TrEMBL record:
Gene3D superfamilies: 3.40.50.360. This is NAD(P)H dehydrogenase (Quinone). GO terms for cellular component: cytosol. It holds the Pfam family Flavodoxin_2. Keywords: Oxidoreductase. It comes from Rhodococcus koreensis. InterPro entries: Flavodoxin_fold (IPR003680), Flavoprotein-like_sf (IPR029039), NAD(P)H_dehydrogenase_qn (IPR051545). One of its GO terms (molecular function) is NAD(P)H dehydrogenase (quinone) activity. Residues 1-196 form the Flavodoxin-like fold domain. It comes from the Bacteria.
Length: 273
């Protein structure tokens, strides 16, 4: 299978870099084809500008509309087109980054901002004019996984931890980017206490990462609800008979229907640290 590995860490001797190297070697050894986008090494420009769309600076830049026009006309910036070609080639995408201030590094956010333009990442229409998103879209049929390191302990990022449960922290990426564009989302690979990892513990962490990425095409994805699968009404609000009494992020998992959750119930963690 074909895998695109997108990584965002500024230090080539980091824990993230070592884990990526070992995981890629294992994936290649298993027969997978790999392409990589190391954003810091590439000196990726994360800033959306008019130059991305060959836009005439004398006119007002409406980013969504102009980006979609440039996609249709073939006038997107070459670096954007190169990343879209990688995505089109891949059967699956692995995105690796350290968690900074509860989100991805700016360079990675800028990769999504610039590459996922209108008509490609969003604003994709069905024949009836409705929007293809949350389970449909340009990237439907592909799989996606995050590999995320963070400084907190596993317990602090658990269901009652002060840092927040990690599947909820990552919901904007898993649901709002990957699932939105149609990709099936695998549970994340989490590396806790990353800034305190002792050398003797590295082999165990590397083995866990390799084991998880090796299941990229076989493990069950997160059971997100599709927008057009009948769970939502015409306002895109969950129907009353779906997961009654469940609110917030947890309601958008299909397995919430069969669980006896109350309004304050905890969602079972789907990402073992």
């Amino acid at each position: 299978m074909k895998i695109l590995w997108v990584s965002a860490h500024p230090e080539p001797k980091s824990l993230n870099a070592a884990l990526r190297s070992d995981a890629l070697a294992a994936l290649r050894g298993a027969g997978h084809e790999i392409r990589a986008s190391d954003l810091y090494e590439m000196r990726w420009n994360p800033v959306v500008t008019a130059d991305d769309f060959a836009h005439d600076p004398s006119g007002r830049l409406l980013v969504g509309a102009r980006s979609g026009q440039a996609l249709t006309e073939g006038t997107l910036a070459p670096d954007i087109l190169a990343e879209q070609r990688k995505l089109g080639w891949a059967d699956a995408v692995i995105v690796q980054f350290p968690l900074w201030w509860y989100g991805m590094p700016a360079i990675l956010k800028g990769w999504f901002d610039r590459v996922f333009v209108e008509g490609y990442g969003y604003g994709v229409r069905r024949e009836d004019g409705s929007t293809r998103r949350y389970g449909e879209g340009t990237l439907a049929g592909k799989r996606a996984m995050t590999v995320v390191s963070f400084g907190g302990s596993a317990d602090s990022a658990g269901p009652r931890g002060i840092n927040g449960q990690m599947d909820e922290v990552l919901f904007p990426i898993h649901h709002g980017i990957f699932w939105y564009t149609g990709m099936s989302v695998l549970p994340p690979v989490l590396i806790d206490s990353a800034d305190r990892l002792r050398a003797e513990h590295y082999p165990g962490v590397a083995a866990r990462v390799i084991d998880r990425v090796s299941g990229l095409f076989t493990d069950a994805p997160l059971p997100f609800r599709s927008q057009n699968g009948g769970d939502y009404d015409e306002r895109f609000v969950l129907r009353e008979d779906r997961a009654p009494g469940v609110t917030g992020l947890r309601a958008h998992y299909a397995d919430a229907d069969s669980a006896a959750h109350g309004p304050e119930a905890e969602v079972p963690t789907r990402c073992a640290v």
